[in-house]
Amino acid sequence: MENVNLRDEDLRESFARSSGPGGQHVNKVSTAVTLTHLPSGLSVMVSDSRSQSMNRKIARERLAEKLKERLQARRLQARAATAKARRQKARRSPGEKRKLVEGKRRRSEIKKGRGRVSE
After folding, report:
1. C-alpha to C-alpha distance for 17 and 47, rounded to whole angstroms
2. In 3-state terms, what secondary structure has residue 42?
3. Helix and strand counts by DSSP (H, E) for the chain
4. Average pLDDT for consecutive 10-residue bins of the chain (119 residues)?
5. CA–CA dist 65, 69 (Å, integer)
6. Residue 16 has what DSSP assignment?
7. H or E stretch including 53?
8. Is the pTM above the cut of 0.70?
9. Cα separation of 18 and 31, whole Å?
10. How far apart are CA 2 and CA 74, in angstroms?
11. What is the Cα–Cα distance from 12 to 37, expressed in whole angstroms?
């Protein structure tokens, strides 16, 4: 997969106090990082480390990974849509068409036999 380019002007960072292990440091310092990619609206919250700078780095990596996954999913959807359109436009072969019509004819005969029985 190609590398996603994250520009600083497209990102909004916010910091909050973390929770979990880390003791007084975690309770006093805002080490948790929330990183939001403004154009896509994707957001990542990281509080893995006691270090704010390490959490910022991890948040950027995770956000880039999310953007890559979203881009890949869109490409797969587009590819599936074109394949579906190609299948829908394909014409049936004469043999397939003959089988289809014969099946319909048989079904018609079955349904005609359901009528009222005359005395």
Report:
1. 9
2. strand
3. 3, 3
4. 74 83 73 90 89 91 94 96 93 93 96 82
5. 6
6. E
7. helix 52-89
8. no
9. 6
10. 15
11. 7
CATH number of 8-112: 3.30.160.20
CA–CA gap between residue 53 and residue 15 (Å, rounded): 11
Tokens for 102?
A: 């014969």
Kindly list the distances between the CA atom of residue 84 and the CA atoms of 49, 80, 102, in Å, as whole numbers in the listed order: 46, 6, 27
| Closest to 36 measured CA to CA, from 45, 48, 49 | 45
Burial of 18: CB neighbours in 10 Å, binned 0-12, 13-18, 19+: buried
pLDDT at 1: 43
**23 token code pair:** 């003791």
Domain ranges (residues) in the chain = 8-112
